[in-house]
Amino acid sequence: MKKHVLLMTLLLLCSNVFAGQDNNHQTVLKQGVISEDLYLWGERVRVDAEVDGDVVVAGGKITVDGSVSGDVMAAGGEVMVNADLTDDLRAAGGQVTVCSEIIGDAILAGGEITLCDDAVVGDNAWIAGGDVTIDGRIEQNLQVKAGHISIIGEILQDVDLEAKSIEILPSAVIGGNLVFKSPNAANISEGATIVGEVEHSKTDAWWARDRPQWDAGDIARAVALFLLVSILAVTLAALLVSAIFRETRFTLAESVRSQFLRCLGFGLLAVLLTPILIVLSAITIIGLPIAGILLLLYILLIVAGYFTIVLLIAEQIHRWIRKQQPLTTFWQVLTVLLAVFAVTLISLIPLLGGLIMCLAYLAGIGAVCLHVREQRQSEIKPGL
Fold first, then answer.
1. Cα–Cα distance for residue pair 239/358, rounded to 1 Å
2. Final residue belonging to a domain, choices 201, 229, 246
3. How many CB atoms lie within 10 A of CB 254?
4. CA angle 94-3-89, nearest 5°?
5. Is there a single domain that holds both residue 324 and residue 357?
6. pLDDT tens digit string along 48-104?
7. Domain final position from 151, 171, 201
8. How many domains does the chain have?
9. Residue 321 to residue 314: CA distance in whole angstroms
C-alpha cells in the first residue's frame, strides 16, 4: 500500500505543477468517442466520453464521466469519478468522490474520500486519507488508513482498518474478518453484519505509538556525542592536511604570526570580493563555468583558512608544552586534538567567541591568499 500512496502523492504534486503552467488551458473538456489513451491537465478538466484506452488527468477540479476501457489516474484538488472502468482507478486529491463501477482495483488517497452508494469495486480497494466514507460494494478486500473511517456499504471479504475513530453503521455488511488498529474502540452498530471475526489492536496505530521522550540529560549527551565525533573527524582531517602540506603549514603559520593585520586584510578582501565575482560571472551563460570554478575555490579557501588556524594553534601549544623539543607523531596528534578542542570551545562562547574565531579565520584565509600570491610571483620572476 505504501507504494500506491507514494504514486498518488507524486501524481498530486505533478498536478500542482501543471495547474500553473498555462492560463490558456484552464478549462479542458473532452467528449465523444476517443480510441486512444487520453492525457489531460488544466485548472478544470472534464471527461465525458467513451474512451478506449487509459485516462490520465491532473488539475484543480476533475470530473470523469462516460466510460473508460482501461485505467484512470487522476490527481487534483477535487476529483469526481462517475465513469465505469474496465480496469483500475488511481485517484488522489483534497476531495475524492467515486460513484462508478470499477472492474479492477481502487487506489485512493486524499483529505476527504467518499465511495457513493452506487459505487462498485470489483477487486481490492486501498485507501489512505483524512476522512473516509465507504458506501457501495467492494467485492474483494478493503484496506484503509485514515483519521476517521465510516463503513456504510458492503465488503465481501476481509477489512483492515487503521484510524483514530472508526464507525460501522447498521447498513454495513462485512463478509470476512474485521481487523482494526485504533487507540479507541470502534463504534459498531448492532444492525451491522460481520461474518468473520473482529480483532482490535490498541497499540499498533501509527499516531498512538510511543515516541521516545528526551529529557535534558538525553539532549546534553546527544550534543556531547555530536561534538566529540565532530572534533575527532576534524582532527583526522587536520592531521591529513598537515601530512600533505607539511612545509606549507609552517609558512602559513609564520605569516599569521608575523603579518597578522596584513593577513586579516587580505582575508577580508577575499571573503567579500569573491562572492561578487561569482555573481557577476554567473550573470552570463558564458561565465557560468567560471562562476562554478570560483565557487569551488571559495569553498576550498575557507576550509584552508580554518585548517591554517587549527594547525597554527597546534604548533603554539607544542611550543608552550615541549619548548624546542622535536615534534613526534604522538605530540602532533595530541596538539592537533587540543587545538580543535580549543577552537570548538572558543566558538561556543557567545558573541566574543564568534568574533575571535571570525578574525582568526579571516587571518588564515589571508595567509593562504598571500602564500598563493607569493608563489605566483616566484614563478613569474625567473621568466623575466
1. 22
2. 201
3. 13
4. 55
5. yes
6. 999 999 998 888 899 999 999 999 999 888 999 999 999 999 999 889 999 999 999
7. 201
8. 2
9. 11
